Amino acid sequence: MKKVAISACLLGERCRYDGTDNRDPKLLGKLEGCELVPFCPEDHCFGTPRPTMDLVETEQGVKALSNLSGADLSPCVERYAREFFDKHPDIDLFIGKDRSPSCGVCSARLYDREKSLLSREAAGLMAAEAARRGIECWDAESFLDAHPAPPILGS
Ligand code: SF4
Question: Looking at 34-139, which runs of residues are DSSP E strands?
Answer without folding.
Answer: 35-39, 53-58, 61-66, 93-96, 108-111, 117-122, 136-139
